[in-house]
Specification:
This protein is mainly beta. It is about 0% helix and about 55% strand. The chain has no helices and twelve strands. Strand 2 (about 20-30) and strand 3 form a beta hairpin.
Length: about 160
Amino acid sequence: SANTHCKTDEATLFTGMFGKKVLSFCATPAKMPYEQIEYRYGLVGKVDMTYTATTIGDGPKLFYGSVANDPRSSAEVIWFQKGTYIYAVLQCSGGTCESGGPSLAVFSGKKKLLASKCQDESECDFHLPVTNNGSGPQSLSPIILVKDAPSQLGL
């Protein structure tokens, strides 16, 4: 779709419209193993904010958690911390989820600063290098670490 901040030589792990802004997770190179995954957020063609996670040892990383709410539904979240802020994209799938596709949440400490729903559910899909074979999620990339979501997300 045109509504992405990812370039043609990158892999799009997620992209969607949140209000007037586009949120994308873009990976380079376009095939695994990725060397970096970048969060980009802003108007089409104009990125306001980026967060770059890399394979470098103790460099910035992305975190992934999944929670089974009940037997019929589960929530996935990809999140990171930047300074005192937590940015999270949550996707719930299954019977008891509220409809409306993934949502973006931004917190400063425990205070929620932003909650925004993805406009077009058909576009807003995770394509993350994560597998879940029943014994809990496993990341296929050293850039994404499996970690429980922060408590303020209420999962």
